[in-house]
Amino acid sequence: MVLAQLGGSISRALAQMSNATVIDEKVLNDCLNEISRALLQSDVQFKMVRDMQTNIKRIVNLEALAAGTNKRRIMQQAVFTELCNMLDPGKPSFTPKKGKPSVVMFVGLQAHNDVHSGLGHRLTASNPTHKLKAVKPLLVSGSSGKTTTCTKYAYYHQRKGFKPALVCADTFRAGAFDQLKQNATKAKIPFYGSYMESDPVKIAVEGVERFKKENCDLIIVDTSGRHKQEAALFEEMRQVSEATKPDLVIFVMDSSIGQAAFDQAQAFKQSVSVGAVIITKMDGHAKGGGALSAVAATKSPVIFIGTGEHIDEFEVFDVKPFVSRLLG
Ligand code: GDP
After folding, report:
1. pLDDT per residue over 162-220, tens digit each?
2. How many CB atoms lie within 10 A of CB 169?
3. Residue among 111, 119, 192 at smallest CA distance from 150
4. What distance in Å separates the CA atoms of residue 300 and residue 278, rounded to the nearest whole number?
5. d(Cα 101, Cα 217) in Å, to the nearest integer?
6. Chain segment 61-107, per-residue pLDDT in tens
7. Are 294 and 262 in contact (CB under 8 A)?
8. Residue 150 has pLDDT above 80, yes or no
9. Is the torsion defined by CA of 315, 200, 161, 302 positive or negative?
10. Quick one: pLDDT at residue 139?
11. Please, what sign has the CA dihedral across residues 292, 294, 297, 303?
12. Spacing, Cα 254 to ligand 1 middle (Å)
């Protein structure tokens, strides 16, 4: 179920409840069940849906409400609030300041079912750095869009008056540097990387140092999204993070990832201190539930969404307008 459909289903459930002559416990339960079904079909994690149901029931608690209160409005408000809460971890993420050097590191998976990378194995929250038995792959589509998103993020800030720079610390994937270089050149953003050096930590440190000297105030480090083994991928990420001491680690996730979103996001969070999430490909036929799950798993807010392949198809993510739009 794509996001627009999710919003439509929830709105319909609320409208059906509103049409009922008397709003009793059964009407409310039917409405809640309808909403829960829509959320589950959109790949929101089961536990989150169950928690939401409990919370809404508590808020609406029919018996406790004084006679004459508008139950329809209370229910509608409760659904709105709960959806907002699911998307709002309660603490804002670090935001870069102009003129003050910040390092922002991007992490996320690059591809799935890649027989050479071994990333077709499941990463789990409880065991993020060890390869487990081969089970279903975590990603249900190709690349997360991380490299494109690095450039979009740089470009967005450049237009706000920042002096951004891009560092390619992905030495695993042939062509990673070329891709970043191409994107950066198009957007006239300085970049750093190497065709020869194989140590991502060395490149990351050199790039960050160089751009600090050049007074760049937003230094973006793109890390590898795949490796021979998951363990190597997470270890590398951890080392790059330790060496560059990023002010913010952004986890990039493809919106079509589905039910695997929670586990994947949590696995990343347990390896590096993820502080924000960017969801890509929100323009496609994605199920929206992954966004909600990633927030819950990382306890970090979604700060931007990718809405197309073009460099400016990138939007600031605001919870309340997003949920309002979702509910129509
Ligand atoms: P990476 O391998 O994770 O670094 O992913 P890339 O940046 O190479 O992106 C993979 C593909 O997804 C490219 O064709 C991008 O143009 C595309 N892409 C990235 N973000 C978006 C988005 O928000 N919407 C759409 N439609 N495509 C995107």
Report:
1. 999 999 999 888 888 999 999 999 999 999 999 999 999 999 999 999 999 999 999 99
2. 34
3. 192
4. 10
5. 4
6. 766 666 667 777 888 889 899 989 888 888 899 999 999 999 999 99
7. yes
8. yes
9. positive
10. 40
11. negative
12. 9
Interatomic CA distance for residues 160 and 191, integer angstroms:
19
- pTM (2 decimals)? 0.85
Would the CB of 147 count as within 6 Å of ligand 1? yes
Residue nearest to atom 25 of ligand 1 (CA): 308
Torsion of CA 82, 87, 88, 94, to 10 degrees: 180
Question: 181 C-alpha to center of ligand 1: Å?
Answer: 15
How large a percentage of the chain has pLDDT more than 70? 85
Task: Give yes or no for residue 9 CB within 6 A of ligand 1.
Answer: no
CA of 302 to the centre of ligand 1 (A): 17
Angle, vertex CA 234, rays to CA 229 and CA 239, nearest 5: 125
Q: Whose CA is closest to atom 6 on ligand 1?
A: 145
Ligand 1, closest atom to CA 307? 23
Residue nearest to atom 27 of ligand 1 (CA): 309
pLDDT tens-digit series, residues 12-55: 888 888 888 877 888 889 999 999 998 888 778 888 899 999 99
CA of 148 to the centre of ligand 1 (A): 6
For residue 166, the cross-strand partners are: 191, 220
Closest atom of ligand 1 to 179 CA is 8
SS3 (DSSP) at 82? helix
d(CA 316, CA 303): 6
Is residue 149 within 8 A of residue 278, CB to CB? The reply is yes
